[in-house]
Amino acid sequence: MKKFLIFIVVLVVFVGVAGYAIYYYGTNLASHKLMNAVSTELEKSGQTEEVKQFIENDPELKKFVEEAKSVDESSLPFTTKEEATRVLVKKVGVTKLLNIKAQAQDGTLSKEEVLADLQGKLSEEELLALKVIAYKELYHK
Question: Which domain of life is it from (predicted)?
Answer without folding.
Answer: Bacteria
